[in-house]
Structure prediction request, 607 residues.
Amino acid sequence: MCGIIAYIGDKPATPRLIEGLRRVEYRGYDSAGVAVLGEDGIWLRKSTGRVEELSRLVGEGTKSTVGMAHTRWATHGGVTVQNAHPHLDVTGRIAVVHNGIIENMHELKAKLQAEGTVFRSETDTEILPHLIRHYYEGDPLKAVLRALEDVRGTYGIGVLFADHPDMIIAARNGSPLVIGLGEGETVLGSDPQAIVAHTRRVIYLDDREVAVLTRQGCQVHKLDGRKVAQRQQVLDQDWGLAEKGQFQNFMLKEIYEQPESIRRCLSGRIQIDDGNAKLGGLNMSPRELVAVGGVVNLGCGTSYHAGMVGAMALEHLARVPARAEIASEFRYRHPIVSRESVYFAVSQSGETADTLGAVEEVTLKGGQCMGIVNVVGSTIARNCGQGVYVHSGPEVAVASTKAFTSQMSALMAFTLMLARTRNLSLEQGQQVARALLDIPNRVQEYLDAPGPIDEVVASVIHARYVLFLGRAFSYPVALEGALKLKEVAYVPCEGYPAGEMKHGPIAMLEKGTPVIFLAPTDAHREKAISNMKEVQARGANLIVVHNAGDAEMASIANVSIPIPVVPAYLTPFLTVLPLQLLAYRAGLALGRDIDKPRNLAKSVTVE
Ligand code: AGP
Prediction:
């Protein structure tokens, strides 16, 4: 959601800001704008729609070397040019970009209006430039600090003062900001993608911190004005610039990156000799592992589905009570947090507000929450302190693919670690370790020959309803397949546990309804076959994802999609692949915007 990029340096700012916006486009947005400091004050251009439109509007831009830009995902007020950021104060000499929500907007707006301030947009953000102006007496930092004292809510902001062309001010509370320190230039971004083209030397702002950016670097302050000591870090190598390369779009590229991203997540962590795994970031001794009384995986959307698979594996292999919970529900049901349990916050972005809320609830109730996160330095990773980075590299497409398989990889590694302290012998541990390390090869094998996906595409793109079914380890994958098809192709569909079909969804089946059945060979094979017969008896089009070599499954199916054979607890790594490709190709056939589906945002930073 909403992206920020700001630049102060020795080169023209506008092209750098537009390029930075392109890099945060994936977060999801509906309008964009840019403000640079010109000789006559602030030069502002805004447009609805894509960054391309803004780029056309901006043209050559100006020669200014200071400016900031924003992509907005509408919350307060519709998608209009007036509501797009940056917003100006009444004099037009202070500009603000903002991610987050000002909760006491009405109170502050009434106060400012009573003083005669005329608002030009419906946004909560516009409060900020007016409020800063209200307190401005020549010192930008003092004015921002004073204004923020009045504000309740979340913010990641950038502020430009026409009177001070040698600085940009940034502040954070609940909405991430990262500052890049280059040679003679300093860059502000809402995520590392916005700034890695400039530098890898970064400072992550913490909540309730304000930074003054200049060409020479930056000084961080607390909200009370106290200076904070420098704490730079260098971005990881796998956090490279996300480029599409030979691929038509990011989603396809990320699907095909999975052999490599899974390998990266497992490498150095799975040890065949010991039949064990090592996750240094968890910092847990065998004694502590033995004491674990339960595991709860918290996440939203795809990350929740990965958490479900992880929980099943934990119960299956480690015999530890485990469950996944939808993070957006967790804190509102006043959960019981056990001190014997380990809580994992599973999140690609590490910025999902609902998951962050669940982390806070666990922590508040004395529990231990650890992150399973992709984005290094993200809020969830930092709030948890301990955890596992999944090392997928940047995931740009809104529809999550490689993060899902990497999250499962990290959870499998933890499963092995826990299982070895209680339930698995050395030999059994070695078997699991070998099978796990072989997954990237099996994923590659499938992607090299994915089967008749286009036949399935033809069946689903005009369907009124599509049903995804699976049992046990295939049930979360059925949910994930349906989520992907909704997100990318907007086809009405749902995922269900196969055994539940006869308790309701069977009523939806009619001649030709596509039913996608995930049926790798496992203990539920015979029951799955009975369900398939029930589906076919209603004239539905039965598409079966099954183990290669299973001739009976292939003969029952109207469309058969074989996958390489792996142990049942690892089948989600394989069964999800045809579903990712299906969503992708269905979206393509329907002319959808694959990487940026309508209404969605890559990181959902509001509740
Ligand atoms: C996945 O395709 C979705 N875009 C969405 O469900 C996503 O998984 C969810 O918003 C959680 O995001 P996170 O992993 O960044 O926390």
Observations:
- The first strand starts at residue 3 and ends at 8.
- The chain has a mean pLDDT of 94.
- The chain is about 35% helix and 25% strand.
- Residues 300-303, 347-349, 352, 355, 398-400, 487, 603-604 surround 2-deoxy-2-amino glucitol-6-phosphate (CB under 6 Å).
